Each structure stands twice: as C-alpha cells, then as structure tokens.
Amino acid sequence: MGKAVEDFAAGRRRVGIGRPGKELFGAGGVTKRELAEHYRRVAPVMLPHVRGRPLALHRFPDGIDPGASGTPGFFQKNLPEYTPEWVRGVRVERMHGDPITMPVCDDTATLLWLADQAAITLHPWTTRAAALRRPDRMVIDLDPPGRDFAAARRAARDVREVLAEVALAGYVMTTGSRGLHVVVPLRPEEDIDAVRDLARGIADTAARRHPDRLTTEVRKNRRGGRLFLDTMRNSYAQHSVAPYAVRALPGAPVATPLSWSELERAGSAQVWAVRSLPRRLAELADRGDPWHALGRHARSPRRAGERLARLAGAGGAGRG
C-alpha cells in the first residue's frame, strides 16, 4: 500500500497530498500525485494568469468516472471551512443569493492544496479580486460543431483579424476539450457589462463576415452546423478554463497556450496532456512562453469599442 499522505515542497511550505496513488482518470490513468506534480511544474507559466482572481473549482474526489458508489464531479465556488489560513479568498457578491468567499490562487502552495482537493480544473474570472467589475481579460470561446478542429483554427484567425482592426491583441489557447479560446488582454478601465458588449460586437462582426461558417446564435438548433462564437464568459461571475488547467476527460488533456504559428500545426484541442506536457515545457524553456508578454499588450476597451463602431459604420462589419 502506498503512502496515505505525501509531502510536496512549494517554496517555504510543504503541502500534504492525501491518497497520492489514487487514479483520478481511470485504471492506469493520471494519479493524484501526477496531478499535483503537474500543477507544481506549470506554476511559473500558469500563476500569472490565475493570480489574484476568484476561482471556480471543478472537483472530482473519486475521479472522473467514480462509478455508482463514488462522488461525481461538481463545481465548488466557496472556500470550505477547513481551508488553510495561508490560502487567500475574496468575498464576492452574487446575482442571486448571499455573498460568498471564493478561493484565490496566488502561489504554488495553493495550487498544490487545490490538487489535494482533487480540483482537476481551475476556472478563473476575467476580473481580479481588487476590481471585480473591471475586467483585464476578454475571452471568446470558439465552440466547433462536433470535432471539427480545423473550423476552430479558421475561426480563431477570423476573430484575430477583427481584433487587429480595433487595435486589440489576441492570444490563442487550446481548451483541452474540443475548441479554442482567444484571450484578449485589456486595461481594466471599463465595467464588465461594457466589455461583454465589446466581445459580442467583435464576435458579431466576425460572424457577419462569414455567415456560412460562424454564428453567435445561442440556441443550438438554430446554428445550422456553424461554429459558435461564445462570448457569455465575459459576464459578471462567469469564468473560463485557466491556461495549463487539466480537463476532466480521458487522458487528462491540458488547456495549452500556443503561438499563432503553432496553431496551424495543432491537430486537436487535446494535443497536450499531463503526461506529455513536460516535453512542451522543455521546449518553452528554449524558445520562451508564447504568452509571456500578454500583460504588456493590454489595450483600451473603450477605444476598441469606438473603433468597432466606426468599422461598422464604414461597412467593415459586413465584409466577406
């Protein structure tokens, strides 16, 4: 029998991982120890994108396929009472119900503690704890019909083209599931509702240019086999999968930031997984993280909205 608890070093702290040999992804699959090792390994490139943000946790205490006697996966947004005092939280207002205190992950030790909670996937807000209604990120989720990843790659380029025309930078990431996210760094100067409207305007522009391939129609039965440009993650209290987060799917795929040139070679949204990602990280050590400069390319959402309005007025929204 393996250890009941295994200690992991994280800076000046040591974090215990209970039942480290527990297979979270089925027989022969990634264990709880491997999940903790993954999050410790990716901490340098992951923490800049989750630090200071409220997190929703997708937890699977008995693994992603627990069987009839196990606990199925669930989302947890509030910090439990047994949380260590060194794990930070932020109190947030909810649209319905009383305020709650949500976890915030500022360091490697917290990443390890979350792994011990079998929090397989971390979902940060687009806003930071210090300004919960002023986003510094915008996310456009490219949700292809079926498994058509080529459609997602093409849509990412379409969205990037619109972003460039309104002077915004776009960064692309596989979701580890089926599609892609285009993440846009912003100056936190506008209310979240204004940023949501900006995201919808950009998506609508791309969809109008390519109505045979793209849509912003929420209802699935009205999409007609087109790729859905989902901007709903930009609303208050919504969240999206974190860069380098593990997905609760067979094989433990990982949401992975890419450069735009790498996107052309990516064959699926699950191109990297927990057991293969160390090779990816070794490559990044040589050539650099494709998202390392993301924060330095934050631009004004207010000015982008003005440019988008002028673009629409000039007929640019209907081009293509």
TrEMBL record:
<feature type="domain" description="DNA ligase D polymerase">
    <location>
        <begin position="31"/>
        <end position="291"/>
    </location>
</feature>
<dbReference type="InterPro" id="IPR052171">
    <property type="entry name" value="NHEJ_LigD"/>
</dbReference>
<protein>
    <submittedName>
        <fullName>Non-homologous end-joining DNA ligase</fullName>
        <ecNumber>6.5.1.1</ecNumber>
    </submittedName>
</protein>
<dbReference type="Pfam" id="PF21686">
    <property type="entry name" value="LigD_Prim-Pol"/>
</dbReference>
<dbReference type="GO" id="GO:0003910">
    <property type="term" value="F:DNA ligase (ATP) activity"/>
</dbReference>
<dbReference type="InterPro" id="IPR014145">
    <property type="entry name" value="LigD_pol_dom"/>
</dbReference>
<keyword id="KW-0436">Ligase</keyword>
